[in-house]
């Protein structure tokens, strides 16, 4: 499709030399002198357009040439209009003098005018409707005039078919034919006024205007009928007695007495009701069926608009909307029509005291389940949520329970949906469902894999032998694993935080780890976790935060085996573990049992290095009486012993096969943690000192099995020495290693002044005798 | 209202870096975004044009990225179709919609509907409150016409050298960026006009 030829054409156009271009301009000037423009000229004009548009930098045409193009805009031949407009669009606009249109404007010239000069909305719309009239004067009467015109075109267009446009050849009937009435899309004769869903052999001018008017009606109503456009009301009122207005707005009969705005509203209402009725007919052509759907969407939106403007219309509108909902709620192919209906219910349901329960069951409960792979529905549904979030949180409190279902959109098409979920996720975080939500987020790649399997399952018949080994597909169809997948595919929260056999699930889905959809989904989870944690800290109490820490520890080894994914999740966990403990230091004492269990396991050093480091750090930092009075000496001692054991183990032997040496950061953190704990319980100091001196001895003899890099080893040893010398002065050690709050509070403008390494270095140089 | 319509590459182009897209046709509708937003009032017309071109390029890049991710996820192979098989090409096309946040690149939030036909993407950027069902149908229709009238399934460069045909198509089916509710009869009537123009 896109060929080398095209690419080189663009290159040529961009790199054309100035001299060559000037020659081209002169040639063009000569060509345009003549009355008639031949094919050569047209081709040259096209090439000029390419030259001008191929680069983002503007090329200025010679003034004479530009003026010639302006003149060409009014040529009777459409091709000339199109080409000259196209060329002028790509150059700098002329000043108002040159673009003085007092004569007839064709569509292309009008388009040019609209794009280059900042015309107001009203002029834009008037130009659209009046190709042939000059309405380029700024007065508010134009709104009234156009309102009246719109009413005429919408409601009173001809109900007879126009003459067929190019009905030459086969179908030339006798000229004096009887006028034929318009027809509906199912072929029956139309019994009411003309709308966009009416057909005929040909169309009259006002029928065309009917189409154009309806097409821009919603935009018109939104722009000119919103509460801020009150300037025209004075003129409206002068047309009708004020008392009459309020009385007649509730009825439809005496609409002729209404001021233009209200009249348009009334006609719009009638038009939309007619469209809704017409959409129930079975159209002969597929494109017309699609148009019917689009008309339904538009009609409901317009009805919503007019009801927002005039609440009294709600009572007349609701029966129609309700009936439409009843008709369409079970049709998945009409799902996108149900969204504006849901909007209507949301906006006006309360006024009409209508029960909206069923609407939300369909929108939140059914659509994500059945239509998660429809990109347009997903986009519109999520946008509906975003734009109405406040209202939904107020009126549809059950919304927060549907996150397992809504997340299906994300699991299927993460790149397109992640943006919306970053905005929506905070609203889904509640204290009641936080733990379940965290588990659900961590299992999004599994959900993604499951949706893929579900999709494949429906596409591939069961009996067909599958080429590649689809262990996961078999598992999906296997009744004994049904429960696992059903849990993932649940629609509502509340039936349990997570499943028991998570590890089984991960094993079954191991081949999904390199499915593109799954890896794309996995890449978005860290982002969502950040959003989750940022939100949860604002609403959770300590008990819930403690629970979340436990979930983090537990899930750190229970994730779908995608290496990059696991690493990222650990990084996110580390970050937020730190944050939570900093906010609520007593969490560490509270959860000391589980944290110690985690920190005491040497295997964690090798498989979850980052998270391990942070767990050790928080233990060292916050396991103290000053953070929580329940912190006993025995607790500190048992923590010390657990960490000491791990440190011994990892510094006495090479890492197990397949694992890399622990990073210096882990060892340094362990040493620092031990030092901190020892500074709080001085009996432990000799044990630390012993270890540190042993460390020095061992490393003096050269390389060690547990550290591959010499520089790393030096860093470790240096830190060890600093801690050793610090612990020689126990009283000072505690306040240096764990400064009291008033010290670390930002009284200094630069943190580096109180950085621990700097302090240690200073003290070392002071206390070292040599 | 539709903000813009573009035709751009969604395949790798040798002269460009990996994520870039070559814009083959672009048409921006309505008052210039630059005129409306406060920040850009002081820009000269030249700078405004540059800004507009860059915004269009930004849209093309984002759609290109969306298309390649979507194709990667679905795992479908791109099948080259021959001229004459426009309907098949359209049926096989992948489609989607990208949310363009406010400020990126237009001052308010917009939705970019896209159709990926082999190596090219056809994108329609719609304002909020636009009827996306109608927009989708219009985009498909526009794409079909472009494929047919500009022989885009072949190796020619008519999309570059006969862009006035697209201009005329847009002037009928999307006048000044206005989406139209056209039933098959109205559409036929307009398409006859377009065909008559193309025949010249």
UniProtKB/TrEMBL annotation, chain A:
The protein's matches in InterPro entries, at most eight in alphabetical order, are given as: AP5Z1, AP5Z1_ARM, TPR_AP5Z1_C, TPR_AP5Z1_N
Occurrences of domain AP-5 complex subunit zeta-1 C-terminal TPR (ranges): 420-766
**Where do the AP-5 complex subunit zeta-1 N-terminal TPR domain residues begin and end?**
1-126, 143-250
Where is the AP-5 complex subunit zeta-1 ARM repeats domain positioned along the sequence? 291-408
GO annotation, cellular component aspect: AP-5 adaptor complex
**Top-level taxonomic group:** Eukaryota
Q: Output this protein's name.
A: Adaptor related protein complex 5 subunit zeta 1
Automatic annotation (TrEMBL), chain B:
Q: What is the lineage of its organism?
A: Eukaryota, Metazoa, Chordata, Craniata, Vertebrata
Q: Name one GO cellular component term.
A: cytosol
Family annotation (Pfam families): AP-5_subunit_s1 (PF15001)
This chain's protein is named Adaptor related protein complex 5 subunit sigma 1
Alphabetical GO biological process terms? double-strand break repair via homologous recombination; endosomal transport
Q: By its UniProt entry, which InterPro entries does this protein fall under?
A: AP-5_subunit_s1
Native organism is Oreochromis niloticus
Which domain of life does the UniProt lineage start with?
A: Eukaryota
């Amino acid at each position: 499709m896109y060929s080398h030829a095209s690419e080189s054409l663009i290159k040529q156009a961009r790199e054309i030399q100035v001299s060559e271009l000037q020659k081209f301009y002169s040639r063009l000037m000569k060509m345009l002198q003549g009355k008639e423009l031949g094919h050569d000229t047209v081709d040259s004009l096209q090439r000029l357009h390419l030259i001008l548009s191929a680069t983002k930098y503007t090329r200025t045409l010679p003034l004479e040439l530009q003026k010639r193009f302006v003149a060409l805009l009014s040529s009777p031949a459409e091709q000339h209009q199109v080409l000259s407009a196209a060329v002028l669009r790509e150059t700098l606009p002329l000043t108002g003098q040159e673009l003085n249109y007092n004569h007839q404007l064709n569509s292309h010239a009008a388009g040019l005018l609209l794009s280059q000069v900042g015309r107001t909305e009203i002029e834009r719309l008037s130009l659209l409707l009046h190709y042939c009239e000059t309405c380029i004067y700024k007065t508010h009467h134009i709104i009234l005039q156009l309102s009246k015109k719109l009413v005429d075109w919408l409601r009173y267009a001809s109900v007879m078919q126009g003459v067929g446009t190019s009905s030459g050849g086969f179908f030339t009937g006798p000229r004096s034919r009887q006028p034929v009435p318009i027809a509906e899309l199912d072929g029956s004769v139309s019994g009411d006024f003309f709308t966009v869903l009416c057909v005929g052999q040909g169309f009259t001018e006002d029928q065309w205007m009917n189409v154009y008017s309806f097409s821009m009606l919603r935009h018109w109503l939104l722009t000119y009928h919103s509460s801020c456009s009150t300037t025209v009301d004075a003129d409206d009122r002068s047309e009708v007695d004020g008392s009459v207005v309020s009385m007649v707005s509730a009825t439809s009969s005496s609409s002729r007495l209404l001021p233009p705005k209200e009249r348009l509203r009334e006609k719009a209402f009638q038009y939309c009701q007619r469209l809704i009725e017409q959409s129930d007919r079975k159209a002969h052509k597929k494109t017309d069926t699609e148009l019917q759907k689009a008309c339904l969407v538009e009609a409901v939106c317009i009805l919503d608009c007019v009801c927002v403007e005039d609440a009294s219309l709600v009572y007349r509108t609701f029966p129609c909307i309700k009936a439409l909902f009843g008709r369409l709620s079970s049709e998945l192919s009409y799902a996108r029509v149900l969204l504006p209906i849901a909007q209507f219910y949301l906006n006006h349901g309360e006024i009409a005291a209508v029960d909206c329960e069923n609407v939300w069951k369909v929108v939140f409960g059914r659509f994500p389940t059945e239509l998660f792979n429809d990109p347009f529905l997903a986009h519109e549904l999520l946008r509906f949520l975003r734009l109405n979030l406040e209202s939904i949180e107020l009126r549809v409190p059950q919304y927060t329970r549907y996150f397992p279902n809504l997340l299906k959109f994300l699991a299927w098409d993460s790149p397109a949906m992640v943006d919306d979920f970053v905005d929506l996720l905070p609203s889904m975080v509640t204290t009641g469902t936080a733990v379940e939500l965290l588990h659900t987020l961590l299992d999004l790649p599994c959900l993604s894999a499951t949706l893929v399997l579900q999709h494949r399952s429906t596409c591939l018949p069961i009996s067909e032998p599958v080429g590649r080994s689809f262990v996961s597909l078999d598992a999906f169809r296997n009744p004994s694993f049904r429960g696992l997948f059903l849990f993932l595919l649940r629609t509502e929260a509340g039936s349990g935080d997570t499943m028991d056999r998570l590890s089984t699930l991960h094993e079954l889905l191991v081949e999904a780890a390199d499915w593109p959809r799954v890896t794309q989904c996995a890449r978005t989870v860290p982002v969502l976790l950040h959003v989750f944690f940022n939100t949860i800290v604002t609403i959770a109490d300590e008990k819930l935060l403690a629970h979340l820490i436990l979930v983090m520890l537990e899930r750190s080894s229970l994730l779908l085996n995608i290496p990059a994914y696991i690493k990222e999740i650990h990084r996110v966990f580390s970050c937020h573990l730190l944050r939570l403990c900093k906010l609520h230091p007593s969490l560490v004492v509270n959860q000391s049992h589980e944290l110690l269990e985690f920190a005491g396991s040497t295997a964690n050093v090798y498989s979850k290095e980052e998270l391990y480091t942070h767990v050790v750090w928080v233990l060292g930092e916050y396991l103290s009486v000053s953070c929580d009075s329940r912190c006993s000496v025995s607790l500190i001692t048992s923590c010390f012993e657990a960490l000491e054991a791990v440190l011994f183990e990892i510094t006495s032997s090479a890492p197990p096969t397949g694992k890399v040496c622990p990073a210096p950061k882990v060892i340094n953190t362990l040493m620092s943690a031990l030092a901190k704990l020892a500074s709080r319980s001085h009996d432990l100091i000799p044990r630390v000192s012993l270890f540190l001196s042993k460390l020095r001895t061992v490393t003096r003899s050269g390389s060690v099995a547990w550290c591959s890099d010499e520089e790393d080893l030096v860093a470790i040893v240096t830190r060890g020495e600093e801690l050793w010398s610090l612990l020689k002065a126990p009283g000072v050690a505690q306040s240096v290693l764990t400064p009291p709050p008033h010290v670390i509070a930002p009284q200094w403008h630069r943190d580096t002044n109180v950085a621990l390494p700097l302090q240690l270095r200073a003290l070392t140089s002071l206390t070292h005798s040599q | 209202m539709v903000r813009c319509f573009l035709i751009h590459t969604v395949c790798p182009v040798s002269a460009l870096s990996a994520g870039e897209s070559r814009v083959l046709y672009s048409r921006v509708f309505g008052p210039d975004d630059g005129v409306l937003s406060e920040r850009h009032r002081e820009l000269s017309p030249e700078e405004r044009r540059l800004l507009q071109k860059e915004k269009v390029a930004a849209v093309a890049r984002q759609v290109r990225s969306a298309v390649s991710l979507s194709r990667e996820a679905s795992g479908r192979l791109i099948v080259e179709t021959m001229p004459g098989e426009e309907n098949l090409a359209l049926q096989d096309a992948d489609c989607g919609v990208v949310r363009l946040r406010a400020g990126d690149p237009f001052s308010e939030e917009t939705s970019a509907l896209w159709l990926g036909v082999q190596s090219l993407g056809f994108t329609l950027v719609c304002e909020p409150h636009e009827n996306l069902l109608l927009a989708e149908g219009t985009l498909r229709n526009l794409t079909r016409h472009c494929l047919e009238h500009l022989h885009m399934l072949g190796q020619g460069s008519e999309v570059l050298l006969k862009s006035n045909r697209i201009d005329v198509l847009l002037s009928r089916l999307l006048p000044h960026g206005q989406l139209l509710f056209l039933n098959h009869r109205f559409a036929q009537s307009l398409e006859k006009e377009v065909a008559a123009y193309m025949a010249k």
